[in-house]
UniProtKB/TrEMBL annotation:
Belongs to the glycosyl hydrolase 63 family. Residues 38-429 form the Mannosylglycerate hydrolase MGH1-like glycoside hydrolase domain. Pfam families: MGH1-like_GH. Keywords: Glycosidase, Hydrolase. The keyword Hydrolase applies. This is Mannosylglycerate hydrolase MGH1-like glycoside hydrolase domain-containing protein. It comes from the Bacteria. It comes from Streptomyces cinnabarinus. InterPro entries: 6-hairpin_glycosidase_sf, 6hp_glycosidase-like_sf, Glycoside_hydrolase_63, MGH1-like_GH.
Length: 438
């Protein structure tokens, strides 16, 4: 925790190794999260990757986001996976022949020329686009980067705000655990329990070719993921009917942060950002009204189909700390909770866990049920810094840098030991570590 990294030292092995990971995962127009486990383009991965790439090549960072947005659907959704046609179908499940985007998604305006999934991931993109622009405004203006992507980002937010307000309270819902990005978080256990799993023999999990079974979701989880995705596809990817609908604090906080970023982008393009900032504030009020729990001092997920807050403490409930305009008493409570026994920010863990250390479902190795992830740490670091918690932010930054390097840029780590889990040479780990080096 006390290791000092010198950002001016570009020859540092850390910088070079992170750059090498991003170089070897670059496909020419975008970056795969990992060569073996995730051989296509993922939506929120690309946003985090662009945030790091901007320090190596602002052009590549712009291209990363442009490539993703080229696969946007007519209704505004940005798909969670854009498939690489040169990768064999059996390299990743579910593959394009499962999603059938260009046929099943026709009514929702799926692109014809590229195959995608039909669900989404957290909207980190406008925030990433703004940070990428700021890294080299001259290049960005010269290429018309923001002018070209602004309408796409605006349509993306419109989709989330209008088609995904399934709870009717002004927040966006996710309709599949893969959409929120923390796939097997215990927060989903209750809403998922209502979903009849697809039989295990009806699909083949390619992830187990690359990852240890104890680090990955279970077959039962997969059965439910498959059922939800199949039903969504078979309904033509129309929103509002599915069995699973959850309002998640991190997903909505990222939407708010991105809406503020979109306001800044609008100003840069000569328009006014006032309406967007106001919308972000309305969303912030809805987030507080619907997901904040004053007793437990953090945000919780709301099960829209089941009616109430889901009483599991996931790291997603701390991520709204990212928002600069949260009331002081809320940020103070979030910091207290992060430092307390459930997350142990600067105490017994080496990196903040994805789930409650005291929770019944806590498992230090199984994916989003306990392990520490680098993107959530990056978001919390930003939140702590934004709210003047400099020492805590510095400590978290050092932990990220130290563990990213010692774990070989692992996908996630055991929060107590820092041991690598999942795959290594994982792109967003390298990208976000690089960002914190600068
Ligand atoms: C399903 C790519 C993605 C991340 C998610 C992470 C994992 C996929 C999977 O990998 O999800 O989308 O196959 O498990 O949970 O956050 O975007 O890195």
């Amino acid at each position: 925790r006390t290791i000092a990294y010198d950002p001016a030292d570009r020859s540092s092995s850390m910088h070079t190794r992170a750059a090498r990971v991003l170089e070897s995962n670059w496909t020419g127009a975008s970056t795969v999260p990992s060569r073996g486990l995730y051989p296509h383009q993922w939506s929120w991965d690309s946003a985090f990757i662009a945030i790091g790439l901007r320090h190596l090549s602002p052009l590549r960072a712009q291209t990363e986001l442009e490539t993703l947005l080229t696969a946007q659907w007519g209704d505004g959704r940005v798909p969670h996976i854009v498939f690489n046609p040169s990768v064999p179908l059996d390299a990743y499940f579910p593959s394009p022949d499962f999603w059938r985007s260009s046929t099943a998604g026709r009514a929702a305006g799926a692109p014809r020329t590229v195959q995608t999934s039909g669900i989404v991931q957290p909207p980190v993109h406008a925030l990433a686009a703004w940070l990428v622009h700021r890294a080299d405004p001259g290049l960005s203006r010269g290429r018309g980067f923001l002018a070209r992507i602004y309408p796409r980002l605006a349509a993306w937010h419109r989709y989330l705000l209008h088609r995904r307000d399934l709870g009717g309270g002004g927040l966006a819902s996710v309709v599949h655990p893969w959409e929120q990005g923390m796939d097997n978080s215990p927060c989903w256990d209750a809403p998922l329990a209502r979903v009849l799993p697809a039989p295990a023999r009806s699909f083949r999990r390619a992830d187990l070719d690359h990852g240890a079974p104890e680090d990955r979701p279970t077959d039962l989880d997969y059965g439910r993921y498959v059922r939800l995705a199949t039903d969504y596809r078979d309904a033509g990817y129309a929103d509002g009917k599915g069995a699973f609908a959850v309002e998640d604090p991190a997903f909505n906080a990222l939407l708010i942060a991105s809406e503020h970023a979109l306001a800044r982008i609008a100003c840069e393009l000569g328009a006014t950002g006032t309406a967007r900032h106001a919308r972000a504030e309305r969303l912030t009020t809805a987030l507080l009204d619907r997901l904040w729990d004053p007793e437990r001092g953090m945000f919780f997920c709301r099960d829209v189909r089941g009616g109430g807050l889901i009483p599991e403490r996931g790291v997603s409930g701390l991520i709204p700390l990212l928002l600069p305009t949260l009331p002081r008493e809320i940020t103070a409570a979030l910091v207290r909770t992060a430092r307390g026994p459930h997350f142990s920010l600067d105490d017994t863990t080496r990196l903040v866990p994805s789930y409650d250390l005291l929770g019944e479902a806590f498992d230090p190795q199984r994916y989003w049920r306990g392990p520490a992830w680098f993107n959530t740490a990056w978001l919390l670091e930003r939140g702590l810094r934004t709210h003047g918690e400099r020492d805590l932010a510095d400590g978290l930054r050092s932990s990220v840098l130290e563990l990213a390097e010692s774990s070989g840029f692992a996908e996630y780590v055991d929060p107590y030991t820092g041991a690598a889990c999942g795959t290594t040479d994982f792109s967003w780990t390298a990208a976000l570590a690089l960002d914190l080096l600068h």
